[in-house]
Amino acid sequence: MGMNTRVTELLGIEVPIVQGAMARIANASLAGAVSEAGGLGIIACGGAPLAWIEEQVGMARSITSKPIGANVMLMDPNAGAVAELLAELRVDVITTGAGSPANYMQLWKDAGIKVVPVVASSALAARMERLGADAVVAEGTEAGGHIGELATMALIPAVCDAVSIPVIAAGGIANGRGIAAAFALGAEGVQIGTRFLTVDECTIADAYKDKVIKAKDSDTIVTGRGSGHPVRCLKNAFSRKARKLEDDLAANGDELEAMYVGSLVRAIDGDVDNGTMMAGQSAALVYERKAAAQVVAELMAEAQALGALDLSALAAANARRERARGASSAQ
Question: N or C end of the chain: smaller count of CB under 10 Å?
Fold first, then answer.
């Protein structure tokens, strides 16, 4: 179910869904599947060896002939080399986080690459527009992984009012209702991460996927606020211990640092007690495993159906859903 927006036209995609660049999770398998389904798949390059990045871009291009993106974490000590490699590989789109892409903007533009920074405030969005960004991803604090403080509901309209380039909404979006809401707030596309954790093409361990599926709306926690690097993840023994130790960073800093080394990889490999299971609050809206193409199609079908309703019809549909829920619980 295709849809034309400035985002789809800019990125050369069929539906306005961008897959989130989840560190050490978003590889060629996932990115290629999302792109082939009509969205934009993103390969997460943060902390990755150059050879791995080149391999993954090649693998993604063997899965699909459609646009492929990559994400550059600008705080990465190797960011400059990654930036140059992606320019050589001529990926279609680069998203950025944790810093300013100013040093690489011209390099990427000369290579014909669209540049879409991830921002957490309207001021940063306006700055990225002045630098020449083609669009921005405005990510609310509901998202998984490294987060800002502003919630999606307030952030998206503020960013949309601050810039003229297209805005892609992120944070807490995992179904068609979230997509429709993002468009009502002013966005012209969405970035979705947590919903894709459980798709068949995501290569994390089954134990991690099961934890996402079983998560309730109160099952995420933010660690790292005291150190200035907040991360949203699922609650487990690891994250609870980390939060406790953060109460006294001066005394526990070394222990915390040692704990975090390799914690994401442990979770990806299946150690869901002693690893960091990055996931957003929208994990509570993820109920099943499916192929990426099924997820993309269902997201768009639900969003389009809701978008066709006026407010009165939408309210009536909501009331029917509540009555149906009440009847089901009474049986």
Answer: C
Which has the closest alpha carbon to 292: 181, 203, 177? 203
Find the helix or strand (DSSP H, E) in which 255 lies: helix 249-260
Say if residue 321's pLDDT is above 90: no
Classify 24 as helix, strand or coil: coil
Closest CA to 297 of 20, 32, 33: 33
Mean pLDDT of the region 146-162: 94
Nearest to 209 by CA among 17, 41, 22, 16: 22
Query: Letter for the amino acid at 114?
Result: K
The C-alpha atoms of residue 47 and residue 175 are separated, in whole angstroms, by 30
pLDDT at res. 138: 96
Element (H, E) at 221: strand 220-223
∠ CA 272-273-275, nearest 5°, is: 65
Rounded to whole angstroms, the Cα distance separating 205 from 213 reads 13
CA angle, 151 as apex, 18 and 121 as ends, to 5°? 75
Sequence letter at residue 294: Q
- Alpha-carbon span 5 to 252, nearest angstrom: 49
pLDDT band at 216 (very low <50, low <70, confident <90, very high): very high
Tokens for 8? 């789809």
The one-character DSSP state at 275 is S
pTM of the model: 0.91
- Given pLDDT bands bounded at 50, 70 and 90, which one contains residue 226? confident
Residue 281 CA to chain centroid, in angstroms?
12
Report yes or no: 168 and 185 within 8 Å, Cβ to Cβ.
Answer: no
**Strand-by-strand arrangement of the 41-44 sheet:** 17-19, 189-192, 167-170, 136-139, 114-119, 93-97, 68-73, 41-44
Residue 161 has which token pair?
């009012």
| β-strand pairing of 93-97 with 68-73 | parallel
Q: How is residue 27 written in tokens?
A: 């590889």
